[in-house]
């Protein structure tokens, strides 16, 4: 079981590395403001997410209902522990990259919306409610 778990974890690590590369590519496209490139990388990320999910299902099939953390700690297998640590490190890098990409996209959308409001301001007449506040 340990050898099959190591093989599944290595496959999962390969898929996660490829997904991290795609997230880095997305970051560069966001920085360069390449909208059409960002659309194409989204499809690639979706496909890679599917592959990662399949490797996760394979890992769960090998483990059954047991926790991977418990198995890694109880196995005393150095290769399994190292693989598990690499996966954890990789997941943390991916979370950081995804959050960075999300933040950059939100900042650019906010900036674009502010520019649009400056170019074409709202022309409706403000209406006061019974408390004297302006309704929006």
Automatic annotation (TrEMBL):
Keywords: Bacterial flagellum biogenesis, Coiled coil. Residues 2-29 form a coiled coil. This is FlgN family protein. It comes from Clostridium sartagoforme AAU1. One of its GO terms (biological process) is bacterial-type flagellum assembly. Pfam families: FlgN. It comes from the Bacteria. The keyword Flavoprotein does not apply. Transmembrane segments: none annotated.
